[in-house]
Design a protein that fits this description.
single chain, mainly alpha, globular, Bact_Polyamine_Transport, transport
Length: 285
Amino acid sequence: MTDVIRTHAPSGNRAKSRRPSRALRLRDFPGVAPISIIALVFLYIPIVITTIYAFNDGDSALVWKGFSVRWFAEVAQNQNLVSAVMVSLQIAIVATAASTVFSILFALSVERLRARGSAIATAILSAPLVIPEIVLAVATLGFIRLIGLQPGMLALILAHTSFCIPFALMPIRARLKGLGTTYFEAATDLGASNWQMFRRVTLPLLTPGIISGAILAFVISLDDFIISNFLSSAGSTPLPVFLFSLIRRGASPAVNVVATMLLVLAIVVTTITFLQSQRRSKQND
């Protein structure tokens, strides 16, 4: 017995003396660091330049003539630009609300399907993520012509709602998958009806995913150009289409001002969402 113990003791000591594997560091991948720096510079330097030249006093978008905020006042007084902003906001708000509600209902209903049916339904609904947008634009324009609908506000809202659904669905579906079935089984055991379960359990737990999906859908709708360009008409020109027309006539600091304002809006919305998620995490802890 002593010989057996002595025989196996060294192997046990060797097992205990094994060091954990060294964590991989950026220097272990030569070339990744400079490529990452170049990518970040290429991504963010244009944004910084655009923001700086929004305060340009000259009439050219890329020729610095001095610091001024006069272009902010001119943008606020440009009725065509303000109208384009309002059109984009109206479309984005309606499309976000409709796509988010539909995504919630779809996510809840698809969970009751069998695995194969659930995968097929999700693949069909997520098709706009992989179909080229130019194809969607041409197909949507042909379809609204076929049903007798003219390009304009209603066509834009319907199209934006359709292609925003997959973007709103992804965070909601991921959140629902991460919840599991424990909460719902507990609510059922306590005698909660379907409506009570939805209002008091499902909806509060899905709130982070709903907010993320709504923000993503809003940004996608506000940013869309190709489909909006195909379906816009006089009096219903979204902001991206209007900005493109401005650039074709000659870039002015007004374009930089609008881009800067949209950037500030995105930063504010992202910050508020992040702070709310952090507060909910602390409350849950």
